[in-house]
Amino acid sequence: xxxxxxxxxxxxxxISEKKVDLFLGWEKxxxxxxxxxxxxxxxxxxxxxxxxxxxxxxxxxxxxxxxxQYANKKVGIAVKGCDARSVVLNILEKQIKREDVVIVGVxxxxxxxxxxxxxxxxGREVLELVDNGDTVTVKGKGFELSLNxxxxxxxxxxxxxxxDAQEYDFFMGEARGEVPNEERVKEIIDFQNLxxxxxxxxxxxxxxxxxRCYACRNVCPSCxxxxxxxxxxxxxxxxxTCEYTDSVxxxxxxxxxxxxxxxxxxxxxxxxxxxINLLMMNRKVxxxxxxxxxxxxxxxxxxxxxxxxxxxxxxxxxxxx
Amino acid sequence: MxxxxxxxxxxxxxxxxxSAEHAVYAPGKAGGKTEFIPVESEDEIDLKTLVTxxxxxxxFFPHSEVLYEYDKEGIRVPQKEAxxxxAVWGMRGCDARSLLMLNKxxxxxxxxxxxxxxxxxYWKEKYDNSVIFGxxxxxxxxxxxxxxxxxxxxxxxxxxxxVVDAGNxxxxxxxxxxxxxxLDKLSCFTDSTEEDKTTAAELASEALDGMAEPMEVNGLGxxxxxxxxxxxxxxxxAKCINCGxxxxxxxxxxxxxxxxxxxxxxxxxxxIWDSCMFPIFTMEASGxxxxxxxxxxxxxxxxxxxxxxxxxxxxxxxxxxxxxxTVCPVNLDIREVxxxxxxxxxxxxxxx
Amino acid sequence: MSEWQPRILxxxxxxxxxxxxxxxxxxxxxxxPSIRVVRVPCSGRVDPLFILKSLQSGFDxxxxxxxxxxxxxxxxxxxxxxxxxxxxxxxxEFIGVEPGRVQFSWISAGEGDRxxxxxxxxxxxxxxxxxxxxxxxxx
Lengths: 321, 352, 139
Description:
By secondary structure, chain A is α/β, with parallel strands linked by helices. Chain A has 13 helices and 10 strands. In chain A, helix 9 packs across helix 11. In chain C, helix 1 packs across helix 4 (112-129). By secondary structure, chain C is of the alpha/beta class. Chain C has 4 helices and 4 strands.
């Protein structure tokens, strides 16, 4: 039985046995390249649930949207490896209770990045997409291409180490296990080896593209402050124009706010309408957090988010002697 | 002057000639994305892209625009360098129509309490002197829905010169006197033939035929008003994450915020795009937010476009360009939204 | 013409580093007149946003100083701060802000001499880098 059928069956059972009031999943979207979030409350709706290469949304954002909208509800959620870590973080940060969530893991082989698909079709519009596993077939007016899955995966997926949910109640298929992924740091190291002036120029060029739509912040499951610091206006910390220092500061601070909490699901990068390489900074921070504090966000449901914890004898070479 | 033909090989010299007296904007790549950028030569122009990632509204109504600067001496409106009028090449029918809508907001006279008429000078300065070369779309995308709104892929409303891409040549047809005057001054054209006219007409009808069946939009505003209090809005907005991607990419969204940025005794007042999707958009000084919930904000956006604006200005504030459909991170498709609301309670459907 | 003097913001904790600065003053120790001091209750109060905002407003460098580990008036404020800075510093360097511009130190109330040394050192580091240009907002 494939993942989608398995998922539908599980959702139906959960709903009919009243284990959950609501189930968060994905369904086919109005565009071939993106699935859309599905809110299941009836067995009938469960028939629409899918899981394939287009299911990029990290659904755990809905736990914290419009504060406590699901309080006192039992909610089921379909999760990829990264999404599961977000759910764990939400639990650790007391946004939801473990006993109120039913976590359904799906075996994930990565999700697509629209811009990579469009690059492969040389900008031609895709009208149909079929996920065949190792390859993905895209069809449009007068063309049909079979693309290698690796070619179109989101950069977060290419750097993924934990494709399976580490915390779950049900798992829809076979787990892939940890993927040793040495390549993930290569881009970071390469960038780090540049002289600082080059690094600054690249940062500046990248973040100059930002139009401050805050799509990155709003799709981020770890960004759920009541009032975001960029929205505070007494004092007004940073300007709202496209001026690049403001944009750089916005993204640096956002990164620090999600330091040790970012699960690198890549939702921000896929949501960005300006194609900013957002994950680079996140990955650098995650590397530092792992090296210094030995912590990986959302892996351990009995742990503590790195930045709200400390040890007395930590490395402090960066402090002036 | 009637329709003229421009050989694509001469396109480069046409742009050069046009830039002599105009600041030319055309679709081009900026940081990997397509938007309307100032161009000086043919090489910078992207003729392939149908719907640019960012709409051309930014040419006339930039993301951030300094209204004035101030210091101890007083206030100064920043002087534009000896302004060449703007010429935009390659604007599609949807975007050209969006300018007409924006012009109703910024360009039409609003009576102020002191009985003076007010028009937005920053908009007028740019828009009134501009000349728009619009291109018909021969192969509309699946996200396009301009045919919903008394327009189509070959609509020339809002353009000064209408251009048809006929393969090896462009066919240019003046729409307004301004367009005619600009064409008269340029030289790289040849007269069009009867055949060209037939080609243009054929391309237009083919393009329209290639589009999906439109939704009936007559009475849309009234329908929305009637369903204002229905719970269907919660259902629709459930997946919306309230980012501003749709509003910022929309060619017709024009809400803005005014902020001061200063240091010491000098500073500037800036007009910046704002979005009704943000909670802070309606946050009041008391701390009360009349649109605190996502569903209220989504409803506002839909109501403004398809009910309030038509009530006030007589047309929908949507051109069917489909940018919000493409850009939405959670695939909240405005077409589906309208259809869902329309169907709601019509046939007893209560959840979808 | 007088030599260019860097302007450095020193964010000092109330209980140790600020008192250390005070001691340096009453002991008439010499250090460069490059710093402007902001007193905060604890190094744990220092939001990375303060540091970035200072650079954006035109400071050439930022020094953050708190109590030595174990000495925090609030028991653990500086441990939490240390984690924040441990991530902030490499991230700032990563995006291309020069390493010398933003520095951290621990100075106790009794270490007036250390305070003078730290200020001298960061001033020299920043002087070598020259006036800040990256991240500075031009108005």
